[in-house]
């Protein structure tokens, strides 16, 4: 059969040549190449845990300080981390104080709704006053740093009074609706009374005396 002669139907076609593979097979993917993000997840979780431990330790250390001289090494030691870890999360003393203040302000303002879900309005108001008293007491050791930071602009000035007044307003409104608290009281007046209790005579205040004064305020708010 010539090159131009068509193949005979009775003659079998010659077998096709085997397919040629690539001259060089692809190199196998390096082991673990598809899991590059896995090592990052534990690292991020560790960083979050360290930050939470530092904030918890700073709260306790700052609350126990009387004169405001709290070395950051003491905070790191109480948290069980090195001073380098502290500075990675909070590069300055002001940054740590601001973080502690902001976290506790969030908690004390949010606790009003939580307490109202569990207690009658007068009891919720009294329990919230205790929570606010603890918030104030925890700031005595760092109040100088806070005030200096607010004045210099190195610490953001939060709307503290407005947020506290709003929390008190929600407690009073619930009591007025239930008929268990007066409806003719301004929330900001209550906050001013609380500030007088906490800062009026701090040298003479004891937890027992503070508790009695807070009881008197709640009693005055009953209809």
Structure description:
Residues 30-42 have a biased composition (Low complexity). Residues 1-48 are annotated as: Disordered. This protein is mainly alpha-helical and 223 residues long. The chain has two domains: 47-91, Arc Repressor Mutant, subunit A (Orthogonal Bundle); 93-223, Tetracycline Repressor, domain 2 (Orthogonal Bundle). The chain has helices spanning 40-64, 72-79, 83-89, 93-118, 121-137, 143-152, 160-178, 187-199, 207-220. α5 (121-137) packs antiparallel against α9 and α7 (160-178) packs across α8. The longest helix has 26 residues, at 93-118. The model is unreliable at 1-13 and 21-40 (pLDDT under 50).
Strand count: 0
Could you tell me how far the N terminus lies from the C terminus, measured between alpha carbons in angstroms? 119 Å
CATH H-level homologous superfamily name of the largest domain: Tetracycline Repressor, domain 2
User: What is the average of the pLDDT values?
Assistant: 82
Written as H for each helix and E for each strand, in order along the chain, the element string is: HHHHHHHHH
Protein name: TetR/AcrR family transcriptional regulator
Pfam family, one: TetR_N
Organism: Streptomyces andamanensis
Keywords: DNA-binding, Transcription, Transcription regulation
